[in-house]
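During the first year of the project, the team set up a workflow for recording each protein of interest as an amino acid sequence followed immediately by a discrete structure-token representation. This format lets reviewers and collaborators read both layers of information side by side without switching files. As required by the reporting guidelines, we include two representative entries from the current panel. The first entry is reproduced here exactly as it appears in our internal archive.
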Amino acid sequence: MTTPPQAQAIAERELCGMVNGLAHRIADHVRQRAVALGLTASQATALREMTGPMTMRELAERMSCEPSNATFVIDKLEKQGLVERRAHPTDRRAKHLVLTNEGSALRERLLELLTQDSPLAALTPEQQRALQGLLEKAVAHQ
């Protein structure tokens, strides 16, 4: 049995509204935690995404922004002594972004704050993994 197009459109609209609402709640959560640490939301996002040395392009992809925007954010973090640009080990044209000791410590504190009262905290770890799998499938669908 197939779902009538109008009912499917209504279901998709409602689902899109929920996903959008969750995205806004997560963004607000990140912004509030960033302010508590003296950071902007973009700086907090960059720190959260820096799981190890990476190029500016890799960071921009993780932040879902243009490399020029990521560069602006990294410039500020570098001035604060939280990030360093180092020679890339295999590409002379690229730089590796690396957290300083201070940057690593601040990132750890940020991650702690982000888990407190997270919009996803109502879900068990299994439910979070299931949601992640469903979202990955939806995003990958062409």
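The second entry, processed by the same pipeline in the following quarter, appears below.
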Amino acid sequence: MSETQFRVMDFDCPSCASTVERALANVEGVESVAVHYSTGRVEIHYDATVTDPDAFEQIIENQGYTPQPA
């Protein structure tokens, strides 16, 4: 299992963070996701043979937020 982290500093509310968390959790190969609204930290554990950080970055952007590598 692999791990990657992003910082997303443009969350407006906890619900925004939950939306991103749900979107990432639905990606095939993702084992777990933790989105921390107060710090803007997104932690993702995933199967690197199935998905990769580029896919996560695109999903975060599709939700309207700007991910930065942590």
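For the second entry, the following points were noted during internal review. The first helix runs from residue 14 to 25. DSSP finds two helices and four strands in the chain. Both points are flagged for discussion at the upcoming steering committee meeting.
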